[in-house]
Each structure stands twice: as structure tokens, then as C-alpha cells.
Give the backbone structure.
Amino acid sequence: MRAYWYDNEAGDQRELHDSGREVPAEYLEKLGVLYFRMEDVAQVDKLAADRSYKNRDTIVVSPESMGAVYEEKVKSFFNEHLHEDEEIRYIRDGTGFFDVRSEHDEWVRIQLEKDDLIVLPAGIYHRFTTDSKNYIKAMRLFQDEPKWTPLNRSSEVDSNPFRKQYLETKSAGV
Ligand code: KMT
Ligand code: NI
């Protein structure tokens, strides 16, 4: 895992967009983003049990696995959105980026590789993309039924109760 400020330059979303300015792990924590380097699946099982996550699946995002819809999918994952639940992803192979909004609404790019596990809190605006290698395999963990409904950013979603709650807990430093 490496986190850095997104450079906001034009160009393919899958390029690094590396401003060269690092984001420390403590800052991610402040945003409510949790990161773990997992030694083995037993550690993931423990995290899942602790948080009452009962189900999981595995997704491969690549032209090989998705065929003609790959480019479309990659673009849709990159639409800024939030969820009313945590988003937990455990990278099993390949690489990719989760971008999350900072407290001042700038993008922090989080580069993930095999054995990285990330927990995005409910209500944080974020987006995902593969990198220029166009391949990532990730385990998606969920509590019950998968609820991946992305709520794309809008003034209406800005006042979603989960968004408000997220902003309140963050400003309180919880
Ligand atoms: C997401 O939430 O955008 C995804 O699940 C993308 C694939 S997981 C790396
Ligand atoms: Ni999401």
C-alpha cells in the first residue's frame, strides 16, 4: 500500500497520477480508512468474524474476465460515489487504486497490491480504478446480502444521513 495526493492532471485514470506528495497512514486513519497487510486468510477470517461479516466473493477486473464490457466497467467504478455500508476489499492478485476524498475534498490515491486489505467507511466519497496493467483480483466482504449500491455524488447524496454521520464523526475526531 502506498497513499499519495492525486495530481489532478488530465490523462487516463489508470496512470499513476502521482503528485509525489505522500499521505501518511495516520491521515488515512483520520479519514476513517483502515488498512491492514494480511499475512494469510486466517487473519481475514478473524477480521470478518470480529465485524460480523458473513459472506464474501471474489471479483476479477480485467479484459480477459469481463470481455467487451471491461472499459465500461472501469469507467463506472471511477464515478465518485458513496455507500451506506463499509466497503471492504482484500486484494488477492494484481494492483489497483482506490481514491478517497480528503477532509478538504481533495483526492488521496491509495495504491493496493496483493495481501492489502482496505476498509472504506460508510459515507466516504470514493472511486476505484485498475492501473495500466488492467488486472486486479479482489475479495469483497459483506455482512449479509451484497449491498454495493453506489450513490453517485450529487447535492442530494451530500445530505444523505450516512454522509452526514460520516462527516460528523470525522470532525469530532472519532
Ligand atoms: C468497487 O467497489 O469499485 C469494486 O468493487 C471494484 C472492484 S474491487 C477492487
Ligand atoms: Ni464503492
Remarks:
- The chain has one domain: 2-8+54-169.
- The pocket of 4-(methylsulfanyl)-2-oxobutanoic acid (ligand 1) is lined by residues 59, 61, 77, 87, 89, 96, 128, 136, 138, 140 (CB under 6 Å).
